């Protein structure tokens, strides 16, 4: 069900662009729609560049970047790092995240969420650090271009934790 | 029997079996317990133990 919801939300972006393109064709004053269409195209190009690789992590996770709405959470688990890593890789798709990169040695996972009516999508950065048999998980959900995530960042974290808790019932 | 072989026979991922083995799970379904007992040919009491946390 989550996959079908994700696919329908992906269609939101296509609908927006289609409406703009259709409006530009029908409008007598085409110039007024060209600027927002250009801006949206730039946003999509920027999104494509930043959402396929983890090189943009410092930009999105920086606390000095005020142009990107983000949340961070830190949790400690009584799990070995490698076990927690494998469990997270298992549950991320169920939580609606698409894993782009996962490095077990570094304990890093980079995932993305899809476009919705309220958000251009978010980048999810997870890092794991093991100390004395316990593992600390750092979770960061960052919007692409928004000052406010409209609660999306928070719901990403809630979904993530809910799926993790559910997965511990075996 | 190795964890890998048990995982294949139970159709449960190795990760979940490791979590069970290390007592990190929050709960176990009766269906899972039944499957484990069936494969290992044992009783639940032979694989479960109560420990007082205090």
In summary, what is this structure?
Chain A is of the alpha+beta class. In chain A, 45% of the residues lie in helices and 23% in strands.
Protein model, in words:
The complex is a heterodimer of chains A (170) and B (54). Chain A has one domain (2-167): 2-Layer Sandwich (TATA-Binding Protein), CATH 3.30.310.80. Helices cover 45% and strands 23% of the residues of chain A. Chain A has helices at residues 2-26, 31-50, 57-61, 81-91, 152-167, and strands at 70-77, 98-103, 108-112, 122-131, 134-143. A five-stranded antiparallel sheet of chain A has the order 1-5-4-3-2. The radius of gyration of chain A is 18 Å and the shape is elongated. With 54 residues, chain B is an all-alpha fold. Chain B has four helices and no strands. Classes of the chains: A alpha+beta (170), B mainly alpha (54). Chains A and B meet through α4 of A and α2 of B.
Task: Please supply descriptive tags for the structure shown above.
heterodimer; A: 170 residues; alpha+beta; TATA-Binding Protein; five-stranded antiparallel sheet; 45% helix; B: 54 residues; mainly alpha; 4 helices; 0% strand
Oligomer classification: heterodimer
Point out poorly predicted stretches of chain B. Answer: none
Query: Count of DSSP helices of chain B?
Result: 4
What characteristic shape of chain B results from the CA principal axes?
globular
Nearest-angstrom radius of gyration of chain B? Answer: 11 Å
Q: What is the count of structural domains of chain A?
A: 1
Taking strands numbered 1, 2, ... along the chain, how are they ordered across the largest sheet of chain A?
Answer: 1-5-4-3-2
**Percent in helix of chain A:** 40-55%
Largest sheet of chain B: none
Structural class label of chain A: alpha+beta
- Estimate what percentage of residues of chain B fall within beta strands: under 5%
The CATH superfamily of chain A is identified as Kinase associated domain 1, KA1
Span of the ends, CA to CA of chain B: 34 Å
**Average residue pLDDT of chain A:** 82
């Amino acid at each position: 069900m989550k996959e079908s919801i994700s696919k329908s939300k992906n269609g939101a972006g296509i609908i927006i662009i289609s409406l703009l393109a259709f409006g530009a064709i029908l409008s007598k004053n085409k110039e007024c729609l060209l600027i927002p269409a250009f801006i949206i195209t730039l946003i999509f190009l920027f999104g494509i560049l930043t959402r396929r690789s983890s090189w943009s992590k410092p930009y999105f996770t920086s606390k000095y970047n005020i142009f990107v709405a983000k949340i961070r959470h830190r949790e400690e688990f009584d799990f070995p790092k490698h076990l927690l890593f494998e469990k997270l890789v298992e549950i991320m798709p169920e939580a609606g995240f698409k894993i782009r990169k996962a490095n077990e040695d570094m304990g890093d996972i980079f995932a993305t969420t899809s476009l919705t009516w309220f958000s251009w999508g978010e980048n999810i950065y997870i890092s794991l650090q093991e100390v004395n048999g316990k593992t600390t998980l750092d979770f960061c959900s960052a919007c692409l271009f928004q000052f406010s995530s409209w609660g999306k960042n928070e719901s990403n974290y809630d979904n993530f934790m809910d799926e993790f808790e559910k997965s511990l019932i075996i | 029997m190795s964890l890998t072989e048990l995982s294949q026979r139970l159709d449960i991922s190795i990760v979940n079996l490791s979590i069970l083995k290390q007592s990190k799970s929050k709960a176990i379904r009766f269906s899972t317990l039944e499957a484990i007992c069936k494969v290992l040919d044992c009783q639940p009491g032979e694989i479960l133990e109560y420990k007082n946390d205090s």
